[in-house]
């Protein structure tokens, strides 16, 4: 399945909106998602008569596209972290095919780190268990010494939301470049294919589910932002009303105090006292 892009712009202009992220930066394509299908896994072969105590199998660990598309249009490098017992357990590849081939006797978990060409995108980190034996078996038996390889791989999709214009162009070039093949012919021959109609329908269903989930998350974030803004506005209104109430209450108290003082002076200076003196004089 090829890399594809989708524009969720609500209008019918046919072009996504762009948002400039910084000085000299490529603008981001708003309401746009790009889906990059990848496959990561391992294929192991029993060495048969060439096997010894420490080298029973030859295996290849890889990251590839489902149908051989060139992933280097979007991938800057792939870093494989092997078991510490291997010489140079950290293998860094900057060009396809992104694969490591070794010989060994035991199964282990490897870490795969995919670094994208856009520095603003986070690296994709995967963990993969390298399997040497068929499911349910952990050692060499007559059932594990056949020439049939042990294939253990997974399909996944990396989705980029609102990518930059430059990165978007890079990702969309993968389908027009020559196909990539493994350095190991026997590995290439045993790669599972993803061209069946049922697989295609399942992938489309998975993509739709993912897009619905992303849209739901965006809606929830938008509603949360709106609710936060409403709360902040209500707090501002309440604070303003409280400050206004405090100011008007202070002015009212000040005016009342002045009136009371004046009345006290009238009583003490003459109003009541003068009347009392006049009454006594008349008698």
TrEMBL record:
The keyword Transcription regulation applies. Coiled coil: none annotated. Residues 1-20, 236-283 are annotated as: Disordered. Residues 250-274 have a biased composition (Gly residues). This is YEATS domain-containing protein. It comes from Ditylum brightwellii. Pfam families: YEATS. PROSITE patterns: YEATS. It is found in: Nucleus. PANTHER family: PROTEIN AF-9 HOMOLOG. GO terms for biological process: regulation of DNA-templated transcription. Gene3D superfamilies: YEATS domain. Residues 238-249 have a biased composition (Low complexity). CDD domains: YEATS_TFIID14_like. GO terms for cellular component: nucleus. Keywords: Nucleus, Transcription, Transcription regulation. Residues 1-14 have a biased composition (Polar residues). The keyword Zinc does not apply. Residues 28-174 form the YEATS domain.
């Amino acid at each position: 399945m090829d890399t594809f892009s989708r524009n969720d712009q609500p209008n019918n202009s046919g072009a996504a909106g762009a948002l400039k992220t910084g000085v000299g930066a490529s603008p981001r394509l708003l309401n746009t998602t790009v889906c990059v299908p990848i496959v990561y896994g391992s294929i192991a072969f029993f060495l048969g008569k060439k096997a010894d105590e420490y080298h029973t199998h030859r295996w290849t660990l890889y990251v590839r596209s489902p149908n051989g598309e060139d992933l280097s249009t979007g991938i800057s490098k792939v870093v494989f972290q092997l078991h510490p017992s291997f010489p140079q357990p950290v293998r860094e590849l900057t060009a396809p095919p992104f694969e490591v081939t070794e010989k060994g006797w035991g199964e282990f978990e490897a870490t795969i780190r995919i670094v994208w060409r856009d520095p603003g995108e986070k690296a994709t980190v995967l963990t993969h268990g390298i399997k040497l034996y068929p499911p349910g078996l952990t050692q060499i038996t007559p059932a594990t010494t056949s020439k049939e390889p042990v294939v253990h791989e997974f399909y996944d999709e990396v989705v980029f939301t609102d990518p930059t214009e430059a990165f978007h162009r890079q990702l969309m070039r993968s389908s027009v470049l020559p196909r990539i093949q493994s350095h190991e012919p026997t590995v290439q021959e045993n790669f599972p294919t993803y061209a069946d109609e049922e697989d295609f329908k399942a992938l489309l269903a998975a993509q739709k589910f993912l897009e619905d989930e992303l849209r739901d998350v965006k809606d929830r974030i938008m509603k949360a932002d709106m609710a936060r803004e409403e709360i902040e506005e209500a707090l501002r209104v309440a604070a303003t009303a409280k400050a206004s109430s405090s100011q008007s209450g202070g002015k009212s108290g000040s005016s009342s105090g002045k009136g009371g003082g004046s009345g006290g002076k009238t009583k003490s200076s003459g109003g009541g006292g003068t009347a009392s003196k006049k009454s006594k004089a008349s008698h």
